[in-house]
Amino acid sequence: MTFPQSMTPLNSQQPLVATHLRPIVPPPGDAAASLATPPLVRGLPSIQGSVVADRIYRGAILFFALCIPVLLALIFVEVGVAGWPALSRFGLGFLTSSTWDPVAGEFGAAPAIAGTLLTSIIALVIATPLALGGAIFLSEFSPAWLKQPVSFLIDLLAAVPSVVFGLWGVFFLLPLLRTSVMPFLRDTLHLGATPFFAGPAYGPSVLAAGLILAVMVLPYIAAVSREVLSAVPRSQREAALALGATRWETITGAVLPYARTGIFGGIILGLGRALGETMAVTMLIGNRHELSASLFAPGYTMASLIANEFSEATTDLHLSSLMAVGFVLLLLTLVVNALARWLVWRVGRGGT
Amino acid sequence: MVTLTCVAAALAVVPLVVILAYLMKQGAGSLSLDFFTRMPRPVGEPGGGMSNAIVGTLILIGIASAVGLPVGIGAGLYLAEHRGTRLANGVRFLADVLNGLPSIVMGIFAWQFLVRPFGHFSALAGGAAIGAMMIPLVTRTTEEMVLTVPQSLREAALALGYPRWRTSLQIVLRTALGGIVTGVLVAVARVAGETAPLLFTVLGNEFWSTSLTQPIAALPLQIFTYANSPYEEWHSLAWAGALVLILMVLIISLIARVVTRARHAGGHD
């Protein structure tokens, strides 16, 4: 490792500093020159020592950086290997079968997979308009004094622990659903005639899980949308306004199309959160291995299935099946998150 | 339409307000000094607290920080100093992917990797699991904060003959410290309430334990257990626990915000 290389500044556009540095600091081992060093520099460690220290420093941060890929790979391998017995035994049937019978040793994760997707979609359908509308309000219309506090409150929602959402859901949301919302949807709006809102209103249900997920993913979608909207150049808005567009037309015609990809990325990011959310869903979904068309019926998600049965798994195959469910969940969230990051990154690159 | 967006913003704030208000109402009644100093009592006996769970959560946060901070800050420094290289871009992308990893998957991974081979649950396994969840958050904030340090500062230090490592650690890192502290606090606030990674690693403990190799109690776990129980006394303890947990998280978040603001206010020196 040569000295000038270690001095290369971060931004390659910046002038190299090493050329200015060279004459001031004496080369290693030059005793005469070091006596002539100006007082400011005297007392600093010798270059010889610092080359070694630099090497250690660079090695250390490289090691820490490499921890991240290694950790991810380890998670992949450990969970994959643990789930392999179940995956190899049931094959694709693991994803499509809806039998989950620990006693008979038959495992199929279809209801949990479907439940995961269904609750996440409910969450996005409810959260997206609220988050996007809120973000548009904050970035375009809100008076300046309101911006900070409201953004902070929405961000704070992301800091509420999952188990607290669950606790609140069990004692506040479920009774509310049981006594008011569900009867209202089913009887007052006559949606009970459709299979989606039919059946008795117990409380713990796919709908309850979807609602709590909506609250939980809202801050993520709102934060990304807000960021993306504020990255839209002023000129874009000014051009639209100059053409005679109203403020609302400016947003729908000029701002939103520009920010579309990024907002979509934010929604996908929210989806990633919703897919893997565990505690609140486990407490609210009712935990039943059956997929019903009705949103009032209890169900399962992959995460809640693992959380609920993992410590009770008695046979190796049961445990392996739960690991396999974890592996499927891992793959699903990885794909979704990678997609989201790519979308947001593309806007970030295009926006600046 | 403008009004509609205003309504959406208002509705987005409603859940937080409702949750906080309901928590206050339910939790404040059961919150007393006993809650912080007493152990849980068996069902039927009134009173009791969660001192073991509070201490357990603090211990777990300590372990998590010991795991997550060095890796996160080191990796963040690497990403900032090697910006644009293929490795840095790859690591940054994977850090974001790790950030989106479901907490339950981290839980079963930690069980498979840190519990199963040793044959028993331990505080260390759970702390390491939530520490791993801190890594991506700390990495990305460190990187962003280090990048805000003016290049001239770095050049000045290098021009004075500071070696690269001292420039990074004593000049750049120290200048960016306010922001990094904010990021660390946000990460701590997030993992403090994590429950899923703890379910199969630290297990929870009804008794007093501070041993790192034994199962330990944790506030989020205790809330989960008590909320699922059929007993009224346990429900009210769960509310009090949730209130304490959320106050902890909110206070940490507020401190983080104050630190950020102080940094911005004094940003010119």
Q: How does this model look, in words?
A:
The complex is a heterodimer of chains A (352) and B (269). Chain A is an all-alpha fold. Chain A folds into two domains: 3-75, no CATH class; 93-351, Orthogonal Bundle (MetI-like fold). In chain A, 71% of the residues lie in helices and 1% in strands. Chain A has helices spanning 3-6, 18-24, 31-35, 47-90, 93-96, 110-141, 144-157, 162-188, 206-230, 234-242, 247-276, 279-284, 302-309, 316-351, and strands at 100-101, 106-107. In chain A, strands 1-2 form a two-stranded antiparallel sheet. In chain A, a hairpin with a 4-residue loop joins strand 1 and strand 2. The longest helix of chain A has 44 residues, at 47-90. The two termini of chain A are 35 Å apart. Chain B has 269 residues and is an all-alpha fold. Chain B has one domain: MetI-like fold, CATH 1.10.3720. Chain B has twelve helices and no strands. Chain B has helices at residues 2-28, 33-37, 51-81, 86-99, 103-115, 123-148, 151-159, 164-175, 177-192, 196-199, 219-228, 232-265. In chain B, helix 3 packs parallel to helix 6. The longest helix of chain B has 34 residues, at 232-265. The model of chain B has no long low-confidence stretch (mean pLDDT 88). The chains are: A mainly alpha (352), B mainly alpha (269). Chains A and B meet through helix 2, helix 4, helix 6, helix 7 and helix 8 of A and helix 1, helix 3, helix 4, helix 5 and helix 6 of B.
